[in-house]
């Protein structure tokens, strides 16, 4: 076997004395030819260098063997190991050049027009769920495309996580990536192999070991456990999970690493009509080649690599496939849960001649179902649950249309709705809304819920001004605002026509009908991710209940976030003294008493204030940029040997105010 190259499908055993095993070098040749092989790892042993190759090659080979032994536990390890050169033989778990890499799994993108695939579901039972998400590298291969990227649990998208209100969710994030860590930088792409986890939209504890995305860093080759305890009346709905390390969001969440996360409806929560519907989860992902290649180059990434890309535009996938087909019977109502896990463009989705009713946005049911709509607006990070049906046999194409100004909207088809078989007339949709809401979703409109703290949050306007409230990201303990706990907070956000505003932990309620008369947006609706290209400003309120600690706000156009359009706020204390609208600038709270947000007569006043704050902040932010790159490097320093994760220290918080898990 040693005298001839391996053929596709051959097996090779790697003994402990690898330096004397010619099979190893036949294996490398086969890998270089991108043949699929099966490897039986007998034992790890010591990997000595072959003369002329060097100890680094031997060391990285040993890393690969050790990892495979860990995964296979003595069984045969199956997979596609591709593109490895003996001069710089590397793995997704070791360092090296862009010329080579080992990818342990080949993920196939099916051809367009095949039936919609449903993701594997991991479901809670008995009030809890313990699961593992593995961040690793794969070769994504399909018609006219081949690239190496990062995914969760070896699939695009990752597994669907399903839990109930009140459940305890435990997720171990295993970072199976490796060195090099990439460049040290703040507010630029960096450390593409460092990671952590965000449960997007969940109302859970923002402190470690919960939804802590600034203090917890999971380094390559390490793991960390994230623990979430949902409150008993947490809103059932559609959420998702994705990596959220500042500087590597584009290279991970924006390149395929994402999973749907569902909070199931308890028995009897929905109407009988809604409970009986067929339910489909659709994860929408786009891989923008130019953005990913730019981020890879800027971050010093040695993993992401495009071998073939013969597509007319960016790659769009629905549950891991281009233009899948969802088949239903004529006039049969179906529930579709759309998760916009794309990195940059937003969607203006049209459903052809099908009848569509909005049910929920960002995991929160609306008050006026069925709200019939023609299109839905999905920004990056946003979700929409709709109930729809199509009449007659034939195909209806769900596509994203050009919109007002055509600002960063994807234009093209996404999936096909195919009606076949006998007519199943399920009748009209009956009105429904939740019988009760949790405290964090109580209606905040009107004078009876006058806000306890009011602040303005201008988003960067024009050019490359990717800042929030005049500041680029300055570190995990540099807070933009402080909000009192157990209070009604009001925020006036400007710049939402150009940026997708996302707020962790505490969703927010629209206080007025936005301009444009789009029925998708109404006063009283709840969001955690918001963009409206026809109305640059929105007034929202939220309840700072159940938890205290950091609140993360950022643009969910992930390239903007990685470049510094992210900030940390603080929920702590009680009463007027706990309200501070610009801690970094030491500004006093904005006096909005008697100025109802969103009224036309006050738009110029708010805009002028936003511009003034922005002008104050942008100069300081620019001057601080070089300093931040150096001073914040400590936030991203490598871990000492043996540590599994790094949790940044947080601002001291009154223990009596923190609801710990």
UniProtKB/TrEMBL annotation:
Span of domain Plastocyanin-like: 151-266, 308-390, 482-571
SUPFAM superfamilies (alphabetical): Cupredoxins
Keyword Ligase attributed: no
GO molecular function: copper ion binding; oxidoreductase activity
Similarity-based family: Belongs to the multicopper oxidase family.
Entry annotated with the keyword Transmembrane: yes
Family annotation (Pfam families): Cu-oxidase, Cu-oxidase_2, Cu-oxidase_3
TM annotation in the entry: 603-624
Gene3D superfamilies per the UniProt record, alphabetical: Cupredoxins - blue copper proteins
Protein keywords: Membrane, Metal-binding, Oxidoreductase, Transmembrane, Transmembrane helix
Chain segments annotated as coiled-coil in the UniProt record: none
Lineage of producing organism: Eukaryota, Sar, Alveolata, Dinophyceae, Suessiales
Protein name per the record: Multicopper oxidase
